[in-house]
Specification:
Largest sheet: 8 strands, mixed
Shape: globular
Order of helices and strands: HEHEEHHEHEHHHHEEEHEEH
CATH class: Alpha Beta
CATH superfamily: Amidase signature (AS) domain
CATH architecture: Alpha-Beta Complex
Structural class: alpha+beta
Helix content: 25-40%
């Protein structure tokens, strides 16, 4: 993940950073550090080297203090690369110009829990208040869920073989020092059959069709970026959220990885702070390839609810 990069940007040690995002590794650290993290459409920024170029779900993208800087880096990095079979053709689009124009008339869905996720009540309230800015900017905002079931097991089935294959050479020597969430997926892979893996690709396709139909009705989806603000150092995940015990680390960021499965653009922007002064992120998700619309919406929100001058006490 890119926790160090997001912390450096938040503290002013660096104006920008790059990251990769398989489950939220750009958006999650950006959210808990109070900065911007953008995951463009899958293939918008080419990846190389990568051994799983045909089946990857990892997106490259920027971590910055402002949306305009995220748009600038995206403009610089985009374009086709023959070494990455998922890379998209160049559009010639200048994303720094695309951020202008506002969001009047856009149809925006707000989902505070995707219909199934446990979310801290304070985070719910902060994100719900942030969504009101979109209505004030002329968008038509209503509460709506995309309609898919919790894809936690699907994500596990798809990523476990990837992680197990990548980590196999290092397990004998380094297993006792590996992240518990990484090992959860590594250990899940041997329990799967080839049929299980193929069924997972079918389920991913079904998820995409559900989300695609949802975005026929809406231009954007707003969610919290994470279910909780930052929790104490040393914990892999919170013990509980809304009184519901957590059994793995995926359950405190249920909003990020579904859109790695679908390859859609998603950005996190700071939208408020808890009573303890911890930042809360708002995730803005768009249609596949509608990166400019996502950046434009984030820029409009940034202007309506500015955060750039707020820095952590050092």
């Amino acid at each position: 993940s890119r926790g160090g990069a997001a912390a450096a940007v938040a503290a002013g040690l660096a104006p920008l950073a790059e990251g990769s995002d398989l489950a939220g590794s750009i958006r999650i650290p950006a959210s808990v550090c109070g900065v911007v993290g953008f995951k463009p459409s899958l293939g918008r920024i080419p990846r190389y080297p990568s051994v799983n170029g045909y089946t990857g779900m990892s997106h490259l993208g920027p971590i910055t203090r402002t949306v305009r800087d995220a748009a600038l880096l995206t403009s610089v990095w985009t374009g086709p690369d023959e070494r990455d079979p998922q890379s998209l053709p160049a559009t010639g689009e200048d994303f720094t110009r695309a951020v202008e124009g506002g969001i009047k008339g856009l149809r925006v869905a707000l989902s505070l829990d995707l219909g199934y996720a446990a979310v801290d009540p304070e985070v719910r309230g902060i994100v719900a208040a942030a969504a009101k800015h979109f209505a004030g900017l002329g968008a038509a905002v209503e509460e709506a869920h995309p309609g898919f079931e919790n894809p936690e097991s699907l994500f596990m089935d798809l990523t476990a073989p990837i992680r197990a294959a990548a980590m196999a050479p290092y397990l004998p020597k380094w297993r006792d020092q590996m992240d518990p969430m990484l090992l959860l997926r590594v250990d899940h892979a041997p329990k799967m059959t080839a049929v299980d893996s193929e069924r997972a690709t079918h389920r991913r396709t079904a998820l995409w069709q559900t989300v695609r139909k949802f975005f026929e009705r809406y231009d954007l989806l707003l969610t919290p970026t994470t279910s909780v603000a930052a929790f104490p150092l040393g914990r892999v995940y919170p013990e509980q959220i809304e009184g519901r015990p957590l059994t793995n680390g995926l359950q405190w960021f249920p909003f990020t990885y579904p859109f790695n499965l679908t390859g859609q653009p998603a950005i996190t922007v700071p939208c408020g702070w808890t009573a303890e002064g911890l930042p809360v992120g708002l995730q803005i998700v768009g249609r596949r390839y509608a990166d400019a619309t996502v950046l434009r919406a984030a820029h409009a929100f940034e202007a309506a609810a500015p955060w750039v001058q707020r820095r952590p006490a050092l």
